[in-house]
Every structure is written in C-alpha cells, then in structure tokens.
Design goal:
- The protein is an alpha/beta fold and 370 residues long.
- The protein is built from 13 helices and 7 strands.
- Strands 1-7-6-5-4-2-3 form a 7-stranded parallel sheet, with helices on both faces.
Length: 370
C-alpha cells in the first residue's frame, strides 16, 4: 500500500495571531505594574506596622529620611481653613447617634425631608466600581424620597461635571422645588464648583452634603502630579484605558484647587454638612495609602484625603477617625467596615436639613419631630 497523499487543500493554513484591541494590550501591562506597586506598598506597610503607634520616635525619623520622589504635599493640607478661619459647627456626636439609629432601621430624617429632591454625585473613577453609591441612592428611595444619580462622567474634569450638575439642578427644580446635593469625594468638589460658578443656583439648593470631598486638594493627587514617572503612568491609564481626561486627577491637586478657588470661592452661604474622616487600620482596603501619608507627612487621612481639606469654612462638620474613603460609598464586609453607605447618607442628610432649618431661623425645639 503506497503512502497516503495529502492534497494541498487539506494542508492547514498557518495560524494567524489574534488582533488585540488597545485595551487588551494595555491591561496585562497595567496589571503587572499594579502588582509590582502593590508588592512594594505591602512590603513598605509591613515595615511600618511596628511603628504606627510610636510615630515621632527614632524609627519614624528613619522613615522620614526615605528618599520620597517628587515635591510632595508638605505644608499644603488644611490651607483653606488657615486662610478662612470662619468657625465650623461640630456635629460629630449627633452624626454618630443618627448613624446608629439608621443602622438599626430607625427613622432619622426630619419631617420636611419629603419636600425636596436629592441629587447624588459620585467621585473620581466611580463608574468603574460596581455598586458605587448605589446604596446611597437606594437608602433615600426607601424613605419614599425622590433621589437620583447625576450622570456626571467620573473620569472628567471639575469644569465639565459642574456643567452637568448645573443642568441637573435646573431640570429637577423646574416645578419650583429645591434639591439637596449629596457628593462623595470629587463629587462634592464638582457640586460646590457648580454653585460657585453659577451662584444663581443657590436659591434652588436646600443643602449640600459633602462626604470626604477634597476641597483643598488631595495629597495623593498632588504627589502623583509632582512625580513624573507616576504621573505618566496614571495619565496613561486615565486616557488610554479609561478613555477619560487626565485633568480629572490634576483638578484635585493643591495647586489646581488653590487656583480654582481664587476665581470661584466655596459656596459658604449654602447650608452644608462636611464629613471629614481618617482611618489607620490593616483591615482598611486603603491601608497602604493611609500608612504612606502618615509616614511621609505625619497626618491621618482616609487613604486619599486629609480631613482638614474636606471642610468648607462655616459648615457643619462631622469628624470621624475610623472611616476610610471607601466605606461611605461602597458596602463593606462586617468586621472590616465600621460604616455603611445607607447609614452615612441618611445621617448626613438629616444633619444637612437641620442646618438648613437653622439658617432659616428655625432652631431645634422640643416640638420638632424626626
């Protein structure tokens, strides 16, 4: 029997390499870089853990001699309240009580809450986080309130998002009602910018709730902007992978915030509640960045924002030392999170409406019911 003949048509064609999209090409590289950064951060954090309780000691002095790249944020946090020392009203104790009541299913909102509409504004890169701020909105809707997310682009500049918020306020108040703005992180910055750039909107706004919003700037954003190699990497991720605007990060630097607020001062005449927090815990998902800021600058943070930068002069302020930047907008696991978005939202809104009543001259009385 002769050898079997194979016809040319039966010969398999050489395999062609698959055509990959730009995202598919970038993703493995970014994942690899992130892995390296995470490894370095974890190693550094491990070295820090022995010293977290004795910062200021010889060990801390050694850490501060670490050759940090870039100019950094030294001396920048808290510049707003140094320039404008208008007294704030501390409502931390009231917040904690309301947060506990909300967590146990008790009603905490004042009786006039149903008169207003609630516009919720997310922060930087929020659209890439599944479930981000969903619970904040659903908590309000469960109380029978008209609540919705403002469709800002979480990867866009402050200027662009402020215009989106302006349009949302105009649309929601066509019937003569007022709105309560609730912003997390950059969302609070964007909301305040809308009111600063368009002061005619203020009469349409009952109150502003700003949760961990870096009005003064963010040390992380500043350090990224002043460290060339990291700035290049972050800008590449924002523009190439997220298809966003690198100004979304730059707008949160101290340099950018100072320049913006010189032209558009904060809306201090709008009743506001500012939630300013910090946390330093190995169970926090932002533990490494919390430790980084504590080691490099010596101040506490929520992992992204110094609490002193999250305050509007003259506002009602909640100061927490046990909440990181994620807990107020993403549902965490029991035992790892001390706070949950639903409770934080309801407690903050209750305080904001109280602040608005105070502005109206309707101070608390025994007859005022929640």
């Amino acid at each position: 029997m002769g050898p079997t003949k194979i016809s040319p048509s039966a010969t398999p064609a050489p395999a062609q390499p698959p055509v990959l999209s730009k995202n598919e090409v970038l993703a493995p590289a970014i994942h690899k870089v992130a892995g390296v950064v995470s490894s370095v951060a974890s190693t550094f954090s491990g070295e820090l853990k022995r010293d977290l309780g004795v910062l200021g000691s010889t060990a801390r002095a050694d850490l501060l001699r670490f050759p940090w790249p870039g100019k950094g944020s030294e001396g920048r946090p808290g510049w707003i309240t140094r320039q404008d020392p208008t007294p704030t009203t501390d409502v931390t104790d009231q917040f904690r009580a309301l947060n506990t009541q909300a967590h146990h299913g008790q009603s905490v909102l004042p009786s006039d809450a149903g008169k207003y509409k609630y516009l919720v504004i997310g922060g930087l890169f929020g659209k890439h986080l599944p479930g981000y701020m969903d619970e904040n909105v659903s908590a309000l809707k469960a109380q029978g309130l008209d609540a919705r997310k403002v469709p800002v682009d979480s990867d866009a500049s402050v200027e662009k998002n402020a215009e989106t918020i302006r349009k949302a306020i105009e649309e929601a108040t066509k019937d003569g009602s007022q709105v309560v703005l609730i912003g997390h992180s950059k969302g609070g910055v964007d909301a305040a910018a809308a009111l600063s750039e368009h002061p005619e909107l203020k009469d349409k706004v009952r109150a502003l709730v700003a949760i961990q919003s870096p009005f003064g700037g963010s040390p992380i954003a500043q350090d990224i902007e002043t460290t060339p190699i990291i700035k290049s990497l972050v800008n590449g991720v924002v523009s190439d992978l997220f298809r966003g605007d690198p100004r979304s990060v730059k707008d949160l630097t101290y340099d950018a915030r100072e320049k913006f607020l010189q032209q558009h001062p904060l809306p201090t005449d709008v009743p506001s509640v500012c939630v300013a927090s910090s946390r330093l815990s190995p169970t926090s998902i932002l533990g490494s960045s919390e430790e980084y800021m504590k080691a490099r600058y010596g101040f506490p943070s929520d992992g992204l924002v110094d609490p002193e930068d999250a305050i509007i002069p003259g506002s009602h302020v909640v100061r927490l030392n046990d909440m990181d930047h994620a807990e107020s907008a993403l549902h965490g696991l029991p035992g790892f999170s001390h706070y949950f978005p639903k409770d934080v939202t309801l407690a903050s809104v209750a305080l904001a409406l109280d602040a608005a009543r105070e502005r109206d001259g309707l101070a608390h009385s025994e007859g005022f019911s929640r």
